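Hey, resending since the last one bounced:
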Amino acid sequence: MDYFQAIFLGIIQGIAEWLPISSEGQAVLTGIKILGLSPDVALSYAIFLHLGTLFVVLIRFRKTWYSLLTGMDIPLLKRIILVTAGTGITAVPIFLVLEEFFNADINVTLLIGLLLIVTGIMLKYSKKGVRDIESLSPFELFGLGLIQGFAILPGISRSGVTITALLMRNIRPESALIFSFLISVPPVIGAIILSDIPPESNISLNLTMILSAFIVGGIMMEVLLRISHRLNFSFFCLFLGGITVILSLL
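The structure tokens again:
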């Protein structure tokens, strides 16, 4: 892998991370179809790239994380812990199976396309709400975590399924978007710890990928927070999933 490819992968991650189109799925597809990587290596890179956008969340919401780490916002900390516990129950076994799955002789592109279509359908039938995050019960928070765990599958968008689940519970769109950002941190850290380090031994290339994802991801987050109410993510996800399925069959 050269520096241009490293920057390109970082840009893909930065653009797709906050959109409900599965950044992991897009990175895997890019790695396989454009860079010629094997499915398991592409998956390893896709997970590693989340480190760049992880720093975006930590810095953008640094005051919130400071409050959490210093015990100043115990209620929010409890909510994130409940969601994380649910995520671990579904995500860890799926992740362990997924690594073997990606080493098998399967049509990964077709799988990602189908899962993108599923995400698009879920988004299509979500609705805007009037509740705040504070009104969610422990049962709802734990259930949200269980749902988030399935986003370890490339093609299932973590932001897409969590925001959709929150909207279906009648949560305000702005609150759903920000809470989805916050609850992304623990599972991303867990996935990076459990996954293999990218096979690229060149540290500067790895840093280039992370920096590229960080810069583009930061820009995309700010843009999305400003215009999210005007975007039709459902159509975008269904369209991209359909194209992916067609290409995989060809």
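Residues 96 and 233 are 30 Å apart (CA to CA).

Sorry for the duplicate.
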